[in-house]
Structures are given as structure tokens and as C-alpha cells.
Amino acid sequence: MLESTETILVIVDVQGKLARIMAQTERLHQQLQILAKAMPLFGIPVLWLEQLPDKLGPTSEELATILRQITQPIAKEHFSGWQCNEFRQQLLTSGRKKVLLAGIETHICVYQTCCDLLNAGMEVHVIADAVDSRNSDNCQLGLQMMQQHGAWLTQTESLLFELQQQASGDRFRQLLSLIK
């Protein structure tokens, strides 16, 4: 079971026109917004990556508006976030070893980040309904490849209720309002 004190969320490259042409872009954006709003309820930090933002554009505005309240983007040029010194330092400094992974594209940047995190000894939980690719087949293949390398697959609601653990309290009511 995931514990909030050991966990961090990483959002990968949900930017510009590319974010709008994902196979399930509406679902992707909806789930990412839920996650970005829910993480502060659990005290879970968020690391937010952008691939070459000067060329690919900024993160989708509806997501960036939420994320700016809790963190700032980290620009990268490698497909894997782990190859970015600033990201790697922030992740290691957090002391968190369980990484929740979301973003685009599943079979490229999310996949390569996942593999590097696993090789670095992290436990990676890919949020399957919060990742996407331009082509649904590529998304499914990316999920399979990450799972074969040792990543866990989860989805937004399952993850949030796993972190919550009980069906009572103010945080539970706040979670219900986010997912309904």
C-alpha cells in the first residue's frame, strides 16, 4: 500500500499543441487536474516537467493554473526526466522513493522516465488513466513495457482511495467532490 509520506507525483510534459492531440486528451486533462488538486490534501509533493518549453510550448493552461499553486515547472531536454539534473536533485532531496507517474507521451517520455526511475531504485506507480499518447495502441504498449520493467499500474480513483484508506473525514469528503 502506498503511504503519503513516502510518495511523490511526477507529471511529464503535458504541453502545447501536442497535449491537445492525445488519443484521450479530455480524460487525460481531467485526471491530471484531479490529481493536482488531490495531492496537497495528502501532503504529497508534485514535480512538474516540461520538455523544451521554448519550442513545444507551456503546459496546458487548465493544468498549469492548478500546478502553479503548489510547484513550478522544471524544463528538460532529454526524454527521461531523470536525465535532468534539477529534477533528479529535487526528487532525491524529497526523500520519497515511491513515484506516481503521469503525463505524455506514454511510450516515450513517460516510459523512459519510468525506466530510469526503476533503475535508480524507485518504486514506480504509473497512473494508467493519467497518461496518454497520440495513438491508443502506443499508449497501451507503453504501459505494457513499463509493467514488464517492474512498474505498478494504477488509476486515479483507486490511487486516491488507497491513499485515503478510510471512508470518513473531511479529506474523504473533499476527495468525493473532486472525483464526482
TrEMBL record:
Domain Isochorismatase-like residue range list: 7-157
Listed name of the protein: Isochorismatase family protein
Species for this entry: Shewanella yunxiaonensis
